[in-house]
Amino acid sequence: MYNTDMPTRAELPTSRQLLRSTGIAIVTAAVLLVTVVLPSEYGIDPTGIGGALGLTEMGEIKSQLADEAEADRLRDLQNAPATAPNPDRRSGTIGSVFASLLIRPAAAHGPGAMHGHDASTVQNASAARSDEMSVTLKPGEGTEVKLEMTKGSEATYLWRASSGVVNFDLHGDGPGNAVSYEKGRGVKGDEGVLKAAFDGNHGWFWRNRTKADVTVTLQVQGEYSSLKRMD
């Protein structure tokens, strides 16, 4: 087996050469940090090079997505049911089950519909109903609008953002369940059929990332018992 010959002392780099190489590596890393890493990861562009290369927009998108992911996490924590069992809570859960079995079907046969702007909560017991709701979001503001639905029920929807675009997350949550149906960024609207994966609240979280007010108007029709603005 051949082993590489050991270099002689004369072939080894001097301390001065090592210091110079270390200095070059530090300067190179600093330049890459300022011109590439900060713009592409955090949207910070002190030199303007990131903007010219399109890296700043990438960093801004990442920051927005991170902020929205954190907002989703906090919202899920708020909506998550408590897991620690105790007799009172079990009693409450059993009561909720009986209430959902006995009260909700009875309520599903009453009349009612909502047509208005910025309404917060509307209770309606119609099995098939239609509603329209408009919400105005300031720059950076987000809001959540949900339908109370039972598993397998369906609702057709159409929403439009006037004078701008929004990010959205179509999702649902209920006792012990959570699901994300669809997400979008910088869109003017969407339409389709929402089918509830489980009993609970299903709907949209919109966030305005533009620099001007945006009004989102939602039209929905189908099998749900209420339309609620959650915040």
Structure description:
With 231 residues, the chain is α+β, with helices and mostly antiparallel strands. The protein has four helices and ten strands. The protein has helices at 15-42, 49-53, 55-79, 87-107, and strands at 121-123, 129-137, 142-149, 154-162, 166-174, 177-187, 189-195, 200-207, 214-222, 226-229. A six-stranded antiparallel sheet has the order 1-10-3-8-5-6, covered by helices on one side. A four-stranded antiparallel sheet has the order 2-9-4-7, with no helix packed on it. It is elongated and about 90 Å long. The termini are far apart.
Summed up, the helix count is 4
What is the H/E string?
Answer: HHHHEEEEEEEEEE
Helix content: 25-40%
Largest sheet: 6 strands, antiparallel
Strand content: 25-35%
Span between N and C termini? 74 Å
**What gyration radius follows from the Cα positions, in whole Å?**
27 Å
Q: Give the overall silhouette.
A: elongated
Number of DSSP-assigned strands: 10
Mean pLDDT: 79
Which structural class should the secondary elements be placed in?
alpha+beta
Q: Runs with pLDDT <50, length 5+?
A: 84-126
Instruction: List the strand order in the largest sheet.
Output: 1-10-3-8-5-6
Please provide a brief summary of the model.
The protein is α+β, with helices and mostly antiparallel strands and 231 residues long.
List keywords for this structure.
four-stranded antiparallel beta sheet; elongated; alpha+beta; 4 helices; six-stranded antiparallel beta sheet; 231 residues
